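User: Hi! Is it possible to get a structure for several chains at once, not just one? Here's what I have:
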Amino acid sequence: MTDTPVRRERMRASWIFRPGVRSAVIQILLVALVVLIGWMIYRTTRQNIITQRIPIGFDFFWIESGFSISQTLIPFAENNTYARAFLVGLLNTLFVSALGVALATAIGFMVGIGRLSHNWIIARLCGGYVEVIRNLPLLFQILFWYLAVLATLPSPRESISLGNIFINNRGILMPKPMFGEGIGIVALLAAVGILLSLVFASLARRYRVQTGSKLKSWPITLLLVLVIPVFAFLYLKVGVAFDKPELKGFNFNGGLRIIPEFLALLIALSTYTAGFIAEIVRAGILAVHRGQTEAASALGLRRGPVLRLVVVPQALRVIIPPLTSQYLNLIKNSSLAVSIGYPDLVSVFAGTTLNNTGQAIEILGITMLVYLFISLVISFVMNLYNRRIALRER
Amino acid sequence: MKRSTILFSLALTFASISAVQAATLDDIKARGSILCGVSGGLAGFAQPDDKGNWNGIDVDFCRALAAAIFNDPTKVKFLPLTAKDRFTALQSREVDLLSRNTTWTSSRDTQLGFNFAGVIYYDAQGFMVRKSAKVSSALELSNTTVCTQSGTTTQLNLADYFRSNNMKYEAVVFNTADEVIKAYESGRCDVFTTDVSQIYAERLKLSKPDEHMILPDLISKEPLGPLVRHGDDQWFDIVKWTLFAMINAEEYDISQKTLDARLKSERPDVKRLLGVEGNYGEQFGLTNDWIVRIIRHVGNYGEIYDRNVGEGSRLKIDRGLNKLWNKGGIQYAPPVR
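Assistant: Yes, the chains can be modeled jointly so their relative placement is included. Here is the combined structure:
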């Protein structure tokens, strides 16, 4: 036909209608638009900051902070810098998050498995726990625990005392052990002992897998972790004195104190996240094929060992990825601490420091980066573990 | 999307890159109202009543500004801000000014990028304790737990005072003033500290206000005043001189009641103040009768003090340092001429 060669000529002439070229052009335009918007934001911000003569830079870190913090894992006084305050806030966040993750996992596993129990009451109780906890906002739960903890505890002059431990609405006070010279060596020996016993445990497991006979590992672990450090402690005559809390006027002096804000935040975070973890655990267990349970029972295993040795190791493959998300949620939710006065990173750094220095952009940027970094580290570690227990498809 | 739409939006974004920031007064006139940053619920300074109307000395100041610009004191929108986010709100142009019982300090003037437009209330920091604690002076407060609000000069003054007197204390820091007073009432802390005017206001929230006492020690200077951003001199002048106008009006005995009589006065300084003579209002970018508008709709300094924190209010705070300079206090305004 006569028009086909003409049509083909026309199509080849307009190269801009080729799909490859079209998609490349659109992508370049999109990237240019994003870069343009980013540059506009940068330029407007810079203009605003110059007009208002707000300082830029990180020099504020080395200024004296001028305020004190109620819970510090490292020594901190009012004439320390903002950089040290940042460190204190960061350590507080990490501390409450680490304990929260451990507690939430323990409670979550118990509740999740309990919901699948054959005991009617336990199953319903666990179900009720999950439904109530998941459906109330976390901020309310934090405030509830804080008020519940504060309202029931007495004032310092009427503390509940168990020997040298005092419980009142300023916290739980206990004697602080103060060690003499040489405690560093003992601690080092204990740490090395723990590491060596872990190595020995994995060697023992490999031996058992290869030969089938069990190796009694507990005497060696006991020796490494307990006997040697204690022996060193006594041999080096490392003294230990106890700084007992004493009531002086309004409050107690001395001793170790756990503030009620920390307790309330810890309880609220762990119970809240445990509700979600319970459902993840339950999903993981239900995902394991029923044939596994039946086969294990046929081998003569009772319900406990079936769960522990057969079902949960396989369920972990389904549990670990959403569990990672819950851990990250817990770490980020710990920033709600500012509502009850717990000095975490957001309260100390993005709250007080921001207000005193006015450099919002730098401070918020750093805070976001810190949380991002912590979350990425946790995901990375959990992904390593996930890869180790994943099903290797042939 | 049509090619023309894409090209048009690109052209628009290029155009807005070189946009110049408009002056605050023009923004306000275009918007039709002033955005005023106030505190969230502080009796005497800024507090909404049960019908949602705001009352307070800071509120009245913003209403005076609205009266000066629009001849209508209702053309203000109040934005309640906590001590933590008040400064970022002003920096980012969310509000036109802060009338939020903020202390004038050097670092706020420089590092935060603000200009303080005067002192509307000369205050000081004090302590409140329970009468049952049997404390008569702040020097007996060693080893106590003190509740305070985050991001305030209170927090810093507290640290200074206890450090210079070698006293130990524990600070529990909360976000909002409500949380602080609740923690104090629940017994979490022994001492409640903030500016004395605020202590009076927060004491009203306690279930048994008579069981608490305010110690006589005043540990710092707290000049509270309105503030604006750096970089807008015209708006800074307007805010500054609105406060001075109200103080001058009280000095010349011009109040809401006496305004009409004073408008007929033959005294040249009164005529200048009320805009009968001269064009001082237009020099600000306002009308010449701007001070008349302020007095008619809101009142002079003595009237707003009385109505909100003085004898005519629940707080009944004595004027003290806030009296006029020729009556024993230190409120002094430069002349309008």
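The first strand of chain B starts at residue 34 and ends at 38. Chain B touches chain A through 50 residues (CB under 8 Å).

User: Great, thank you!
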